[in-house]
Structure formats: C-alpha cells, structure tokens
Amino acid sequence: MDYLLRRLLGKGLSEALFSIQNAQYVFRLMLVNMILIVVTFVMLGFAVLHLFYTHDFQLLAASSIAAFILSSVLIYLRRSQNLVLSGHLATIAIVVFFPIFAQINQNNQFGLIWLLVTPFLAISFNGFKIGLRYIAVYLGIILSVAYLNIGVWEHGNWTELSFLRLLIGLLVFTALATVMDVANDHLNKRIQNQHRKEDVYLTELKRLSTTDGLTSLYNRHHFNEVLAQKVQALKDSDLYLTFFILDIDHFKLYNDHFGHQKGDTALQAVAHAVRLYMKRENDLVFRLGGEEFGGLLVSDKPQEMGAWLAQLPQAVYSLHIPHAPEAQAQYLTISIGIFSAKVNDLNSINCLYRIADKALYQAKHQGRNQAVITP
C-alpha cells in the first residue's frame, strides 16, 4: 500500500499522508492531487482530439495551455505540499480556461456541459468557503458571456431557455459541491474529535500503567523498565548511577493503630515529601511496594549525591506525622540505603538493587531513622 501511494502521489505526499494528523488536510491533499492528475490527462486528451480529429486549433491551443499549467501545478504540489497555493493556481487556470472554451465551442455537440464541473473543481481545490468566491467570479463571467450570445451560439439556436438551463445546472452543481464539502468537513471534524479522545485515553492508560495509583509516583513495573534504560545509556560513560531504597519504620504498627485509611494518607505524605526533595528534573522516584520507595539518580559526584540523599530521613521526620505509641519514635521516620556505582563496575543490574537493599537493612539494624551509604 505504501509503495502504491508513493508511486501515485509522490514521495512527499505519501509521507505527509502517514505523518500529518489533520484528517481534513490529508483528505484534501489526496483529492487535489488525484483531480489534478485526471484533469491534466483530460486536457491532454482534448488537445490530441482537436489536433488529429476536429482540427480546431483554437481549442487545441487552449487545452494545451491548460494542460501545461495544471501539470506544472501538479509537479509543484508534489514537491512542496503547498496545498493552498496549488489550489489557487489550479482554480484560476480552470476559471480562465472554461469561459474561453465556452466562447470557442459555443455548445457544439453540447460541449458546454463541461462547464458544470467547475464548481466541483473550485470547491475541491480550496474548500467551500474560498471555492464559492471563485465560483461567484466564474458565474459572473460565464453567465455574462452566455447571455450576450443568446441567438448567436449553436448557429443561432442558443435561446433564453438554453441560458436558463445552464444557469440552473451551474447553481445545482454548486449546491451539490458545497453540500458534499460541508459534509466531508463535518465528518473529518468528528474523526479528529474521536482521535483526540483516543489520544487522551491512551495517554491516561499509559500513565496508569507506569504510575502508582495511591502516591502518583512511578510504579515497580516502570522502575524495571527505566533501570534497564539507564544502564544501557550509561554504559561506557564516566557517570555514576545512584540507587536508593527507603522504608517507613514500623509502618505495620502505624497501620494497626491508626487504620489503613490513615496509613494510605501517611504513604501519600511521605511520597510527596520525597518527590519534593528530589528537585532535579531527571531524578526518578518509585513506589516499589507497600511502604518501600526507591529512586534513581545520575551524577558525576557520587559522594555528594550520597550525602545529599542521607538527609532524607530528616526531611520526612520534619513532617511531624505522629507515630503509633508503641513505636520508638514520636513521629513517622524512614530508613534508607544508598549505593552508587558506574554501570561497567556492576556485575549485574540486580547487584545495584541488592547492595542498596543490604544498606537499608543495615540502617534498620542500627536503630532506624537514618541512612547508610555503601561505598
């Protein structure tokens, strides 16, 4: 399908078809391109007909000039994708050609029936708002010429009734072309609205798949993905990847005393405090599960990074969230394990997690409410 579109529409237009989200623009781009191809070949066909069959050299010249102009517009459109200018140029060529054609043909063998296609072309090229302006100019010219030639065209058989039929036909075809374009515009707007709704839905779905519902931090699944990406990005670099795990001390006692609803509120407060503490844009914080949180940071000064993260317990303690009476601290506290290393110095990705978790265990063993940095 892609190959056929590239051959038919040109590389630039086929790429626009797959890259541009505006359905109305894409539709008109394809429509104008196809119409230009068809009308150009029709004009070339008329030129050949008048050259070898009718020997009408006036119509031969008019058809040849129109074919040259339309083919030039087609080439310009395929190269530039400038739909607006291409539509204007093509419409001007058509609006100029058909009055000349009418004056030369004089409805010979009902040739003026071709005048009825102009409303469709003008509106297809430009949309009904601009197209109707061209049609107004076109009608003013063609109807004036047709009226002045009553009793002249068709060897004197062109009558007021003939003129009236032409007028009604042009108005009917203009109305049909307008209705079709308005209906297409309405349909495209509905399609765009549906696409916008789908985009919002997919964005929300993606957010839910990577975010913890309670704390709005990234979840464990996203942590696994990001960790692998960070490791790959830092491979063979001089930067350090710092990972920390923190755990709320004696959180089971807190839940047992205050209830799980209060426990969820406490988790949200701690998560918010940790997120605020991590002020750098690229620092990532995760809820790894239960009352356990983690973070990934990249720096070139791991010692300073570790010392900075070691102050997190104080930031959480300063929230002054009352702890359960059975807990050893008056307020809710956390313990944290911190580990930094170059990616190439790690035996495996799991090694990063395992060493930080071991540091967290050590912090708890040493009395909690503190940080342990593993060198």
Task: Describe this entry's structure for a reader.
The protein has 375 residues and is α+β, with helices and mostly antiparallel strands. Helix content is 66%, strand content 9%. It is built from 14 helices and 5 strands. The chain has a 5-stranded mixed sheet, with helices on both faces. β2 (284-289) and β3 form a beta hairpin. The longest helix has 51 residues, at 160-210. The chain is elongated. Residues 12-21 have low confidence and may be disordered.
Features:
375 residues, alpha+beta, 66% helix
Quick summary of this structure?
With 375 residues, this protein is of the alpha+beta class. It has helices at residues 2-9, 11-19, 23-54, 57-80, 83-105, 118-126, 128-148, 160-210, 220-233, 251-258, 260-277, 302-309, 312-317, 349-365; strands at residues 240-248, 284-289, 292-299, 334-341, 371-374.
The H/E string reads: HHHHHHHHHEHHEEHHEHE
Inertia-based shape: elongated
Number of strands: 5
Helix content: 55-70%
Alpha-carbon Rg, integer: 37 Å
Poorly predicted runs of 5 or more residues: 12-21
Determine the number of helices (DSSP H or I, runs of at least 4 residues): 14
Topology:
Elements: H1 2-9, H2 11-19, H3 23-54, H4 57-80, H5 83-105, H6 118-126, H7 128-148, H8 160-210, H9 220-233, E1 240-248, H10 251-258, H11 260-277, E2 284-289, E3 292-299, H12 302-309, H13 312-317, E4 334-341, H14 349-365, E5 371-374
Parallel strand pairs: 4-5
Antiparallel strand pairs: 1-3, 1-4, 2-3
